[in-house]
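> run fold Equibactin nonribosomal peptide synthase protein
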Amino acid sequence: MELNGVKENAKILVKDWLKDIFAEEVISEDENLIEKGLSSIQIMQTIFRYA
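> ok
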């Protein structure tokens, strides 16, 4: 599988994983995502994706 395919599959997996974690929760701006189970790398990746 080429690198782009791997990256796209990884994005889909992370997106699905985040949906599962936060499925029934409303996240406010001041919540600590690390306490919710995300690593600092995952938080940065999520922020940069939607910035």
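The chain has a mean pLDDT of 77.
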